[in-house]
Amino acid sequence: MSTSVNPATYGGWQSERSGFMGNLSGAGFVLVAAASVIALIPIYIRSWASALIALPLAVVFLLLAYGRVLGLTADQWIVLAVRHQIAVAKTRNLFLSGVFAPKREDGHQPMDLPGALARLRILEASDGLGGKIGITHNPIDGTYTAVCRVTFPGLALIDTERQNMRVKAWAAYLRSQCKEDGAITRISVHQRSLPDDGAALRNWTERHTSADAPAAAVEALNDLMTSAGPAATIRETFLSVTLSSSRARLAIKGAGGGQIGAAAVLVRELGAMHSALSSAGLQIAEWLGPRGVAQAIRTAYDPESQLALAASNAAAQDAQWEGVEAGVDPELAGPAATETGWGVYRHDGAWTVSYQVRGFPQSEVYATFLQPLLKPRQNARRSLSLVYEPIGPAKARQELAREKTKREAARGLRAKTGRSESEDERREAATARAQDVARASGHGVLRLTGLVAVTVTHLDQLETACAELQADASSAGLVLRRIWGAQDDAFASSALPLGLGLPDRRVGI
Asked: Which of 68, 212, 373, 464 is 20 to 30 Å from the Cα of 382, by its Cα?
């Protein structure tokens, strides 16, 4: 007797309410309060002439608090616009590297990256097996990040039972990181599509073609690679793990302290997760060394360099090419120049627009619901980053209780004012209760941030590529919002596999 297994469905993503009261931010609440006071002034002073000034001013304040401009409140939009214009006036939206970067005393050129990436340093650590791992160190945040390239068989072409098992194994791995004072503060999955000229395939074919192969077969194979190679698209998938030095300070101290101790603790954490990742169907192809991390950064800033690097890496694998190393020297990882626009980021010979996923599907979906977003496009490169931030049990209890209190307070206010409750609001309240019940039953709580970037090498193709991305996102049930006024920071989080999250706010005008 055979039993069929139904594919599991997933849902219940809950947006965090960051408002000071209801959907209002702190500034919005102040604007509403000021509008109320101004509107009451003519009544108290019994002057109808003053109402001609007070009422329009109150309306302006209410529009600033409740008005929306492309998903942002009017006051947020104005603040972003002012900050961006100040940055443009001070030319802080421009970045020049290369010969403009000062050399160190030892004569080497330092790794020069723009914006929030300028603080990063690539360290080298031993993986305990005779190899080297490149670790990205952020001295401001006190974090250490290791990046690996992973391969996976996919979910669409396997049977339902194994598909469910792999997704459950991935969920179990994430849940295992939701522990009190856990050292791992961020886990990021990054996938991007890149052009492939077939250099690696041709190199492999030349090495494995028999000398007595029929000439007609060899000619047909060469013609096929010549015609199909430039049109091919490859996908790269990275997994990054970030360790917090403040959370793991005791373990770091026990491992020798400083950067050496932090690297040792991170390597130990990486070794402990291999079996869990294998259960989820993820095979670690390699932990990137310093040159591998630099190549991942370089190919994001300059997509056209991917073709030359593919040929160089293929030559490095050939025994007859001595002295050729795979990857990129960390000193050359950064772009030559960048320019941050209001809604677009220009870097070397490419333009990128980054989006934040503001809404996941409201209905139950299958594990493959993101496939429309990852469809390869010949006219554009796409990058998808999913950033997970594990939350410990105690903090999760506080966060969910705070969110639950905000929602109940908003529901009570609506009931007092006679407003009817919508089905969306009832569903959000039910989801919040279900999350609290699941947490009490032992489930983990994670913050999830989704970021998408689309890159083109010809400016006239940018808006078409953006429209195609938004159409595919709608097919996946996602709600995207263009990240206005912060495209440089958004690029660092969405197009680079470094496990960076979005900053809380823009600082340093």
From this structure: 68
Task: Evaluate if residue 256 carries a pLDDT over 60.
Answer: yes
- Tell me: the pLDDT tens digits for 41-59? 888 887 778 888 888 888 8
d(CA 255, CA 260): 8
Per the CB < 8 A criterion, the answer to whether 378 and 194 are in contact is no
CB 326 within 8 Å of CB 316: yes
What whole-number distance in Å separates Cα of residue 472 and Cα of residue 379? 15
Provide the CA 205 distance to its chain's centre, in angstroms.
36
For residue 10, give every residue at least 6 positions away whose Cβ sits within 8 Å of its Cβ, in sequence order, or none: 167, 364, 365, 366, 367
Return the ∠ at Cα 501 (arms to 102 and 341), rounded to 5°: 60
Q: Which residues, in sequence order, are CB contacts of 41 under 8 Å at separation 6+?
A: 50, 54
User: How buried is 39 (Cβ within 10 angstroms: 0-12 exposed, 13-18 middle, 19+ buried)?
Assistant: middle
Q: Which of 359, 317, 346 is nearest to 462 (CA)?
A: 346
Taking alpha carbons only, the member of 372, 393, 337 closest to residue 474 is 372
What is the reported pTM?
A: 0.82
* CA–CA separation, 139 and 115 (whole Å): 15
Residue 454: helix, strand or coil by DSSP?
strand
Distance, in Å, from the CA atom of 440 to the CA atom of 496, rounded to the nearest integer, reads 36
SS3 315: helix
Find where tokens 């690679």 sit: 225
For 150-192, what is each residue's pLDDT tens digit? 987 766 666 778 888 888 888 888 888 888 888 899 999 999 8
CB 384 within 8 Å of CB 300: no
Q: Would strands 381-391 and 337-340 be described as parallel, antiparallel, or unpaired?
A: unpaired
